[in-house]
């Protein structure tokens, strides 16, 4: 199979590319390296079945021929939650980029696998979320919701094209990814920042009271779901929650990270939300994965403790590698 991945140098993109190559599939990957890094692609670049194209996912002249050559298109390129700034970039990449990819996939009748997010459920208090749960977006003057809205827009663009064209699609709403290849900043999530601080012996900064909960999913489990959607797309129910169903508070996550990275009594520091402006957090986020289990045969397998150990070791090596390159 020929697979085209946008955002190939990113966290999930690089891991998914490697998994596809190991199975003997050809992969063409697009990235502008605004977020992703070539360090994530070192193994892929040595494989003759891999082709890297540096370019902007919003550029139809770049995207169109790559879609035309592919059997399946996986759209991963996206801006993340703009915690501090760059909300306009998030909106532009996530909306115009998705529109460009979807239009090309529609013209060529390709199967499109779209990486959506648990953030689309917003402030909905009714957990666990199932695929029919309401999207409850917070106040319009809070910057973070630009990410959720851009992904809701992406899902709607896909559905609209599918009604009018030969587009086939699978939408995966991802919950809390972590693991090798993750960004070492807040783009990677709280665990990435916690691991870095713990390795340096610095206090782990927890935003708010730390009682907000998340479900963290190791990257191999997310990759498994993508492989299932790419290679054996289900004939019905084409929107799926993908994630671990284990719920953990951010405070407990920080304590666990410290135990894995250093041991002993954790150093925790609580940072009020008001410190970084008009921001809104989500109190609980847990998926119902019944549909994914039934139709994709997907179940997250990696225990959080084991996944954090693997991630901490990778992050320690990556920090050393970056220090040598600087």
In short:
Helix content is 39%, strand content 17%. It has 9 helices and 13 strands.
In spatial order, strands of the major sheet run 3-2-1-4-5-6-11
CATH class of the domain at 2-175 and 219-243 and 287-300: Alpha Beta
CATH architecture name of the domain at 2-175 and 219-243 and 287-300: 3-Layer(aba) Sandwich
Estimated structural class:
alpha/beta
Query: In terms of per-residue confidence, which ranges show pLDDT below 50 for 5 or more consecutive residues?
Result: none
Shape: globular
Assembly status: single chain
Q: Please give the number of β-strands.
A: 13
**Share of helix among residues?**
25-40%
> What order do the helices and strands follow?
EHEEHEHEHEEHEEEHEEHEHH
- The average pLDDT is 95
Number of helical runs?
Answer: 9
State the major sheet: 7 strands, parallel
Radius of gyration over alpha carbons? 19 Å
Report on the structure:
This protein is of the alpha/beta class and 326 residues long. It has 9 helices and 13 strands. It has helices spanning 11-22, 60-69, 87-108, 145-164, 190-200, 219-231, 250-261, 290-295, 304-325, and strands at 2-6, 26-31, 50-54, 72-75, 111-117, 168-174, 177-178, 204-207, 213-214, 217-218, 239-242, 248-249, 268-271. The strands form 4 sheets. Strands 3-2-1-4-5-6-11 form a 7-stranded parallel beta sheet, sandwiched between helices. Strands 7-10 form a two-stranded parallel ribbon. Helix 1 packs across helix 6 (219-231), helix 2 (60-69) crosses helix 3 (87-108) and helix 5 packs across helix 9. The mean pLDDT is 95.
